[in-house]
Design a protein that fits this description.
By secondary structure, this protein is α/β, with parallel strands linked by helices. Helices cover about 35% and strands about 15% of the residues. Strands 3-2-1-4-5-6-7 form a seven-stranded parallel sheet, with helices on both faces. Helix 7 links the parallel strand 10 and strand 11.
Length: about 425
């Protein structure tokens, strides 16, 4: 089968499914031809032909502020269509186009390849109420800015107007879409590698060192992970809980993984959210035991989760992070906020603990209780791993993904081998004796 994948940051969400398709080629060379369209980056995958398009400018003079994202999306859609026409001239016409709808790349590809089915990744339908907007009273959005929130759905709506197929990774994220759109959006729950993300059989006496952090056998390790440290992932609530935790438990050390950029929400008036919270807490926080590690290699990230005594995961009602899935698979004691983003995964006192997402005092109290209660937390860790094995298995996810691709494309991923013609055998007649 011929595939055209599209994501502005190759390989994005498509690493695992692309590897699965490449594995087909190892068994039977030439089974699939894979082209991946993206903005320029240094990532490579052997067996994948990467086609880049020019990154559009982020802001054009005179564009209304609520239309700025849509303006960039349409420029990106135009650039992708130009790239698609070029590969079409070279003779490549895909059997299916798979890509992320978030940045507009997919919007014009049906014009270049009419009749080719699209499977687009839908992530979140923005709402002025009942989701992330004004969830946190600390950061209110006035009603006169609600129009800007609705405008963020411009690409969403254009993508839905294509009347093609969609996929979404969680029930909560699918629930944010209008009822009329849901029939075309397939729930495809994403998985993690359970062989890599798994609990350790027994802790070693050897200290764990990651950057400035050194965790000894005597330490209790609290972990926090986010792509970037910001209120959308409860960073402010987490930080405000730390002084009480550190004061009560001199054996606690804290690892904070994440960058200082902005993934979601607004930046602070000055600096970054890490600096804002450190300034707010001042001497209340024992800085010698709180280690900001930035963005670290994946193996170090997993090593921290496997050593974690309590993993804090907070989020506004928004998209779920891969780190939450990985923490559950590693058998972490997950203490999560009570938003549907989190509670779809973390069930209170079954596979983790749930606290009010914006209540730092409750978070501190629950964390201290958990650290002091191994009889309670042991079964919760087992429950976390069991949940991952049941719901987050990468191989099961890939089987479902491949089935969905076959359904959308209308053909099997691996063509049936032609049956060999039966060879008719004729028994020789015995010769008569002379």
């Amino acid at each position: 089968m011929k595939f055209l994948f599209v994501h502005q940051n190759f390989p994005g969400q498509y690493l695992h499914i692309v590897r699965s398709l490449l594995a087909d080629n190892e068994i039977s060379p030439g089974t699939h031809e894979i082209v991946f369209m993206t903005e320029p980056n240094l990532n490579v995958l052997a067996g994948v032909r990467k086609v880049t398009y020019a990154k559009p400018p982020l802001l054009q003079a005179g564009v209304h502020r609520d239309a700025a994202e849509f303006d960039v999306a349409m420029r990106r859609a135009e650039a992708c269509a130009t790239g698609a026409r070029q590969i079409k001239k070279l003779g490549f016409v895909p059997d299916i186009i798979i890509g992320h709808h978030g940045w507009g790349e997919m919007l014009n590809l049906g014009d270049v390849f009419p009749g080719v089915p699209l499977l687009g990744y839908f992530e979140f339908y923005y709402q002025a109420e009942k989701a992330d907007v004004n969830f946190d009273p600390e950061f209110p959005l006035p009603r006169e800015r609600f129009a800007g929130v609705r405008a963020k759905n411009a690409v969403n709506l254009q993508a839905l107007a294509l009347e093609q197929h969609g996929q979404v990774p969680t029930r909560w994220q699918r629930s944010t879409y209008p009822d009329w759109a849901k029939p075309s959006i397939h729930l495809l729950e994403e998985g993690v590698n359970l062989d890599m993300c798994k609990p350790v059989a027994a802790r070693t006496k050897k200290p764990l060192t990651v950057g400035s952090l050194n965790v000894t056998q005597q330490n209790k390790l609290i972990t926090y992970v986010a792509r970037n440290l910001e209120p959308y992932r409860g960073f402010h609530t987490f930080m405000r809980a730390l002084p009480a935790i550190l004061a009560a438990r001199p054996d606690v050390v804290v690892s904070v993984v994440g960058g200082d950029e902005i993934s979601y929400g607004a930046p602070p008036p000055k600096g970054n959210w890490r600096e804002v919270m450190l300034t707010e807490l001042g001497r209340q926080l024992d800085r010698s035991r709180v280690h900001f590690l930035g963005k670290i290699p994946y193996d170090q990230h997993l090593a921290l989760l496997k050593r974690s005594d309590a993993h804090i995961y907070l989020s506004y009602p928004f998209v779920a992070s891969w780190s939450l899935r990985e923490a559950l698979a590693c058998g972490c004691l997950v203490i999560g906020g009570d938003t549907p983003t989190v509670t779809e995964f973390v069930k209170h006192r079954k596979n983790g603990l749930v606290v009010p997402a914006l209540d730092h005092a409750a978070l501190a109290k629950t964390t201290l209780m958990a650290l002091a209660s191994p009889k309670l937390t042991g079964p919760l860790r087992l429950g976390a791993r069991e949940f991952a094995e049941k719901h987050l298995d990468l191989q099961t996810y890939l089987v479902r993904y491949r089935t969905l691709i076959e359904k959308v494309a209308g053909k099997p991923l691996i063509p049936a081998q032609p049956k060999r013609a039966a060879v008719r055998t004729v028994k020789a007649k015995p010769k008569r004796a002379a």
